[in-house]
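> call design_seq(struct)
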């Protein structure tokens, strides 16, 4: 029997956008409020009962609202909320990422997009992505690191992730086939960052908070993609304060840089460093998603810290390389 995995931060927003009809409804209400009948006509005429079920789901997550059409007593009219418009912004980030698929561009709202998003969520929520972002691992090694998931279930998830281009395998002498993230999976940090911020902003009571493993996975994925000044060398600690009761818990990574190249990125916020950057999870999200200048503390070698922070911002703002 397959063990159920914990839903992680950002997953709920992506699940909503993986359903084509949710996306069609959001886009159908983007320009104006509509009755159920008018909305159905605008999105391909799904059955009335199906449309109402999806509208109810979107109402629960505060993406759409319902009111009475002016001048027509008893006539319900649906409209897009600020939360719905924010969810469409997440959809734009997701579409940009899907367009960079190594298997060829994917259109959001298609079966191919649904498969890719499901594999992405499963990898993130099961901690497969977190494990592979630290180092390449074979299936047997991963099974020891993630004992809560059965070996067959783990193998199925890896197969799904590989089939859509999230991970790749390569032979090594004397070892089983190890898996490692593709650059496409690494750039999904922009997707999860955007989705997590929407959840914290719009439906925090309905979704999982940002946890230590989310933070470390995001840093471990994004840091190797950073473009840094060629004269930069040293160690920079990236830390996030995660509140748990009275005492805070810190998560993060220690980044080692030589001549502008990241030579290692080790999970955990401890270790000697010439520079450090620290803040709350939402402060990091706002900085990476919006470029806000405050809320993050920088210490030590300010040149090194600023260079790393700017490198992370560029990585988050550019989900895939320009063609």
């Amino acid at each position: 029997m397959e063990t159920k995995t914990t839903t992680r931060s950002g997953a709920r927003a992506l699940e909503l956008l993986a359903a084509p009809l949710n996306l069609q409804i959001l886009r159908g209400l983007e320009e104006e409020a509509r009755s159920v009948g008018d909305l159905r006509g605008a999105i391909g005429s799904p059955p009335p009962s199906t449309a109402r079920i999806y509208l109810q789901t979107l109402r629960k997550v505060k993406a759409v609202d319902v009111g009475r059409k002016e001048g027509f007593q008893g006539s319900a009219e649906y409209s897009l909320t600020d939360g719905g418009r924010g969810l469409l912004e997440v959809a734009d980030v997701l579409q940009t990422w899907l367009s960079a698929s190594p298997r060829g561009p994917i259109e959001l709202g298609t079966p191919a997009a649904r498969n890719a998003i499901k594999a992405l969520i499963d990898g993130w929520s099961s901690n497969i992505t977190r494990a592979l972002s630290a180092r390449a691992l074979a299936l047997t090694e991963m099974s020891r690191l993630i004992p809560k998931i059965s070996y067959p279930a783990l193998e199925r998830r890896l197969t799904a992730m590989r089939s859509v281009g999230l991970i790749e395998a390569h032979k090594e002498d004397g070892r089983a086939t190890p898996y490692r993230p593709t650059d496409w999976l690494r750039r999904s940090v922009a997707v999860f960052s955007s989705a997590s911020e929407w959840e914290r902003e719009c439906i925090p009571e309905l979704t999982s908070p940002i946890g230590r493993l989310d933070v470390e996975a995001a840093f471990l994925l994004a840091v190797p993609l950073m473009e840094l000044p060629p004269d930069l060398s040293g160690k920079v600690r990236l830390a996030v304060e995660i509140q748990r009761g009275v005492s805070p818990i810190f998560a993060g990574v220690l980044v080692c840089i030589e001549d502008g190249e990241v030579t290692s990125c080790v999970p955990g916020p401890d270790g000697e460093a010439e520079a450090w950057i620290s803040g709350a999870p939402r402060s990091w999200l706002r900085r990476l998603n919006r470029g806000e200048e405050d809320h993050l503390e920088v210490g030590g070698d300010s040149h090194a810290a600023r260079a790393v922070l700017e490198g992370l911002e560029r990585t988050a703002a550019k989900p895939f390389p320009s063609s």
